[in-house]
């Protein structure tokens, strides 16, 4: 009996050792999260916010000059500054977290279509709180678009600024843009940069996860759907909305803004420095490190090739998306489909390859 018990114990110990000795090792390569975060923060995000703040500051200065002495020259300079700042905004719209999320930078800067009746009511009353949710559609770049393009001929627009309430409102909504931009930029240049870079774990609340989710969400919701899908009738059973395009009153820069938004997306994916041509650690390099493939091809190459397809489709569009929708909406649908394919590659294939969890829900499927 003792001999049998001893043999049993030896067998159990032997099995235990055998299991440990042959334990499966995970040889999947891991990407350098810290390097990616440093590149994102120092070479892409902070320079993008600094540029945006500078452009909004110029916009504020041009608005102050114009409203003090309304004339054709001042209006032209104000309009140029508005478009410059609007393009710069496309490069920070990806980063709706941290102070930007707390201050509702995106919602206050680019909620469209703008609420014309609400804007006129605010001007008439002279009393409004731009920090409240109901005011998001009465401010930002779409509201400025209306105030400098949508109230009549150039001479009528200039004359409207003899009304001090109109001048005050334009300056107030631009001051709101500038204040939020400055606060967010100062936060990044203060303690938040290090907090962001040091949050390099694999948790759902890590900087990699939060940033990547915001990148994809911006592409899916704001670029694909907001700029193209909604006005083109994708989500309304084919009923189109030519009045829901971005920059509706200027009317010939929707393509410019879309192109900037797509470039911001692709540059971020590739880790391209905002103020240069160099590339650093990025989602692309991470995919290459983990050997991510689809149909026998590198996933990073597939994604970049699809960005090329998107750019080709967008280049075929009219400068006025309102006109494009009215005259040949199929080209808008083609552009949407090209972007939708990259939503699949990014949101499904890339996230799975990098083991990053999607933290938002959409209602239109992938």
Task: Describe this structure as you would to a colleague.
It is a single chain. By secondary structure, the protein is mainly alpha-helical. Helix content is 66%, strand content 1%. It has 14 helices and two strands, in the order H-H-H-H-H-H-H-H-H-H-H-H-E-E-H-H. The chain has helices at 2-21, 33-68, 72-90, 99-102, 105-109, 116-125, 140-149, 154-160, 164-198, 207-229, 254-270, 283-289, 299-315, 321-353, and strands at 293-294, 297-298. The chain has a two-stranded antiparallel ribbon. Strand 1 and strand 2 (297-298) form a beta hairpin. The protein is globular. It starts with a helix and ends in a 13-residue tail after the last helix. The relative contact order is 0.12. The model is unreliable at 1-27 (pLDDT under 50).
Give a concise summary.
It is built from 14 helices and two strands; from the N terminus they run ααααααααααααββαα.
What is the makeup of the main sheet?
A: 2 strands, antiparallel
Measured by DSSP, the beta-strand proportion falls in under 5%
Helicity, as a percent range: 55-70%
Mean pLDDT: 93
**N to C succession of SSEs:** HHHHHHHHHHHHEEHH
Beta strand count? 2
Overall spatial form: globular
Topology:
Layout (H helix, E strand, L loop, with lengths): L1 H20 L11 H36 L3 H19 L8 H4 L2 H5 L6 H10 L14 H10 L4 H7 L3 H35 L8 H23 L24 H17 L12 H7 L3 E2 L2 E2 H17 L5 H33 L13
Antiparallel strand pairs: 1-2
Which labels suit this protein?
single chain; 366 residues; 66% helix
